[in-house]
Amino acid sequence: MSKKSNSSDFVTQNQRSFAKKLTRSVNKSKNKVILQSSEREISEERLVHFDTEEEKEKEKEKEKEKEKEKEKEKEKEKENKTRKSKSLKQKNTFPQLIPKKEVDRLLKNQNSSDTQYVEGYLRVNPRCHKYAYLSLSDEQCDLLIVGLRDRNRAFDGDFVIACINQPEKWQIHQGQKQKTGVIVCIKKKIHPRKTVGCFKLFGTSTFFYPRDHRVPLIKISKKSLQQFAVSASNYEDTLYLVVITDWLEPRFAIGKIEKIIGSTRDIRAESNAILLEHDLDVTPYGPDVTKGLPKGDYALTENDIKDREDWRHECIFTIDPHTAVDLDDSVSCKLLENGNYEIGVHISDVTHYMEFLSPLDIQVSKRAITVYMTDNVYHMLPKQLCQVCSLSPGQDKLTFSVIWEMTKDAQVVKHRFAKTVIKSCCQMAYHHAQKFIENPENNWPDNFLNINGNFSISDLSIKTALLRNHREPSMYILNVTKDTLQSFGIHLDIKSSASLHTTIKCYEQETETENDETKMIMKSRMMVINNLCSRAMTRATYICSSTVKTEEELRHYALNVSFYTHFTSPIRRYSDCVVHRLLYSTIKNVELPKRWCKTLCKSIAENCNIKKYSAKMAQERSNELYFTYLIDLRGPIVTIGIVLSINENFIDVILCQLGIKLRITFTQLENLALVEYSTKCSISTINISWKQPTVTQVIKK
Questions:
Q1: How far apart are CA 113 and CA 125, in angstroms?
Q2: What is the pTM of this model?
Q3: Quick check: keyword Transmembrane helix in the entry (predicted)?
Q4: In CATH, which of 3.40.50.2000, 2.30.30.210, 2.40.50.700, 1.10.3210.10 is domain 194-264?
């Protein structure tokens, strides 16, 4: 029992020992496996760690590249913004003007074969202020100024200097390149910087819209708006006079209200607006200026008549329109014993009553001209002086006369000037004189009025004289006109002003031999011929003789004479008063007034040019105003019109019976007709297909 028990214990012990060894062995194996596994994990972790570091480095590099790209993009954006800002700034600011002295130097030193700078009077398109023009000598097309920025604060009529752009900036006009440019200097401001118009809302702001489309939009200060009580209830129907005080950016100018004119529905206010817009002073003269002037019923004294030739016994008469009030010229004609005629032209001696550079003379020189409106006449002189100087029949009057001796065929034998006293025996109207001419009993030579020769003042030596200059026309436009009329069977000789005048005269004479209906058509044709020819002509101007380089610059193209000036209308033109003074001092061989000089003569000439043109424009506007008023009262007028020119957007017509030019834009026909424009062989054609009734009109030019 005991042995068995011992052996059992031994087995158990062995088993336990084996189990322990086995357990140890297994544990060792496990530990080894665990260790190996751990080593593998550590190794893998290390590998993963190494891979992550590389990726991180790469990511960092990528991020750096992205940051660089972003920085580049930001820089580009900044550059674009700067460029856009500069571009916007350029659009919103004017180029810097060049000082007058510097631009004079540039003009003087430039190569004549490669002209970069040109000067002249700026003309702004009256229908679109975006386009302005400068005439170029010996060029078919004008220099084109595009946009308000390139106009550079210049207004219509200003004397400016422009820089011609590079050829790549030129534009195409009628199949050829037209030069463009930029104003670089406003040498003389001629435009008054005043305008008439109404206020309109523009977003939250109130802007002034000028009636003259050549003038930019104007921003008015709140102070000025409050001062004149401008509100939404009254601004659209009220006319205001605004003075432009500054022009800092192209979009709009800065201005202030100077005057409330009145309602747009009041024709008197409209008429007054025309005078104000053209800067024409028509206020009555004050007592400080008229003090000492003779009254209208003034009788001549012995002192007035002293040293004058007495022509009161001669047959002298005036010939004027039947509505004329100021009779400042008269004529006489007497048969001499030798068979020649003594012809006298006697002009009112205004300067006898108006001393040079007196307060009255200075005021008259500023006004420079009588303004004829449809509803009124605004005299250059005080009313009482007009009455004293007017050559009314049966009254003794002081005159400045030129007397010719002529042969029967109108050849001048001799001439002279004289201060005279006359008494007109008759006031004739043009139709009275025409009856005498048409009367067969008056056996006058056909060419009686064609006085030959430059016979009067060419022999007088006046270094600083006020002359009337008319430059040659644009031969390019004249040639185009010639070709246009030739296609209608009308042939013009444009070699000289004399040949042009002769050919036009031939067509005028044809109107006298036709029946009434044909006569009306022929007269209409003549109106069109004259109108088309006038487009090529330049505007005649007053000029100081000592400011030109050659005598050729003094020539008058239309009259075909070397020297010409105004003498016959001193009551209504200040230029004639100047000529009277110069002429008298020359024929009497006395010194000119001490203050008379080239500068003063030039200044007077320029002002006379401005006021004469302004008065002409005001008169035309006044006629248009009253014609519009008439249409409004009586309704539409049906009349015959002749087409002057054709464009894809409009046609220009002249209403011959009314003497009015109109522009008909095709936007007016948008819902009434279909308009098609085409050109073939230089002939423009417009097809107008009316919807009601279904009729097609074809207009060609």
A1: 29
A2: 0.80
A3: no
A4: 2.40.50.700
- Paired sense of beta strands 238-249 and 218-220, if any: unpaired
- Do the bridges between strand 131-134 and strand 329-335 make them parallel or antiparallel, or are there none, so unpaired? unpaired
Q: How far apart are CA 429 and CA 433, in angstroms?
A: 7
Compute the Cα dihedral for 663, 666, 670, 675 and give only its sign.
positive
According to DSSP, residue 286 is labeled: P
- Round to whole Å and give the CA distance between 309 and 420: 5
Task: Answer whether 644's CB lies under 8 Å from 697's CB.
Answer: no
How far is it, in rounded angstroms, from Cα 117 to Cα 104? Answer: 10
DSSP string over 615-632:
HHHHHHHHHHHHHHHHHH
Fold of 100-188: OB fold (Dihydrolipoamide Acetyltransferase, E2P) (2.40.50)
What is the rounded CA–CA span in Å between residue 36 and residue 40? 6
Measured CA to CA, the distance from residue 58 to residue 46 in angstroms comes to: 18
- Give the tens place of pLDDT for each residue, 531-576: 889 888 888 999 999 888 888 888 899 888 888 999 999 999 999 9
- The string of pLDDT tens digits covering residues 566-599 is 999 999 999 999 999 999 998 888 888 788 999 9
Give domain limits for the chain.
100-188, 194-264, 287-469+559-616, 475-537, 641-690
Q: 3-state SS of 544-571?
A: EHHHCCCHHHHCECCCCECCCCCCCCCC
Residues 398 and 589: their CA atoms lie apart, in Å, by: 21
**From residue 223, how far is each of 202, 232, 255 by CA, in Å?**
18, 16, 11
Contact (CB, 8 A) for 426 and 611: no
Distances (CA, A) of 286 to 291, 383, 522: 9, 12, 51
Cβ–Cβ < 8 Å for 566, 579: yes
Strand runs (DSSP E) across 367-432, as ranges? 371-372, 377-378, 396-406, 412-423, 426-429
Secondary structure of residue 44 in the 3-state scheme: helix
Percent pLDDT > 70 in the chain is: 83
**What is the percentage of the chain residues whose pLDDT exceeds 90?**
41
Distances (CA, A) of 207 to 94, 257, 431: 21, 12, 52
DSSP strand pairing (377-378 vs 396-406): unpaired
What element of type H or E holds 411? Answer: none
| Number of neighbours of residue 74 by Cβ within 10 angstroms | 10
Q: How long, in residues, is the chain?
A: 701
Residue 576 three-state SS: helix
Q: Is the four-CA dihedral 7, 9, 12, 14 of positive or negative sign?
A: negative
